[in-house]
Amino acid sequence: MNKVCIFYFSGTGMTRYIVNKIKKEFEDLQVYVDCIKIENINGFDIQLLQYDAVGIAYPVHSFNAPQIVLNFVKRLPKIDSMETFIINTAGEDHPINYASSNLLIKNLNNKGFKVFYNKLFAMPSNFVVKYDDKKIKELINDVDNKIPLTVRNLIDRISYIPSSSILVKILAFVGRLEWYGAHILGKFFYAKNSCTRCGKCVNNCPNHNIDITKGKVKFNWNCGLCMRCIYNCPEQVIDIHKPFNFLHFDNWYDSNIFTRK
Predict the structure, then answer these.
(1) Within 13 A of 177's CA, how many CA atoms are on the CB side?
(2) 3-state class (DSSP) for residue 197
(3) Per-residue pLDDT at 112
(4) For 54-89, how does the pLDDT look when each residue is reduced to its tens digit (9 = 90+)?
(5) What is the β-pairing status of strands 113-122 and 189-191?
(6) Which terminus of the chain has a lower count of CB atoms within 10 Å, N or C?
(7) Is the dihedral of CA 154, 159, 160, 162 positive or negative?
(8) pTM of the full predicted structure?
(9) What is the C-alpha separation between 182 and 184, in angstroms, rounded?
């Protein structure tokens, strides 16, 4: 394995952290790596045959890959047996998340991308359950320790695809409703009066769901609930209207801990 491409999507920075660590480990072993943000790909003119393997990395959303990732795979060209690996992140390395890649793997295989590796890394939860500083540090250190072995397994083409129970598969199937619910829920976000209209949320939104109209930040109908706008807002002014304010969409962590290499 001499050259690898990793296509990735990251909302609040945790998946990007993993991708950067994997890239560095590959390069320490003399393997060249291109890392490409999925949201930056409009058409598709990347010459995939120049790579020995392709990776897809994403955060688990409601027991599934985010819709933006699945839409990206639909745009991939058909190819003849490209070795492919998947990296995903979730608030817990638990079998309940092991079916998150099932639809993604099916779509990749149909395109000729042969998935041989599917690894879940536990990172701090950024929704519902807030971890304390000690657990955050433990999770990040655990990831740092696991990545070298993961990269060596990829280079050696060691197959690893965890199985999931029927119940977990059903849960993942039902969880796909989140794709549609996110569009509705995202419409209830708003910027408080203390917003400076800096435009950072507009520029960073992967779904181009935010704009500034007549001096007001406007959220439209294409939200993916990645929470990037919330975690990157310098003034912390993004909130959600009733009746969804009980969900507490907040920036729980200093994003700098997910940008260090």
Answers:
(1) 4
(2) coil
(3) 95
(4) 999 999 999 999 999 999 999 999 998 999 999 999
(5) unpaired
(6) C
(7) positive
(8) 0.92
(9) 5
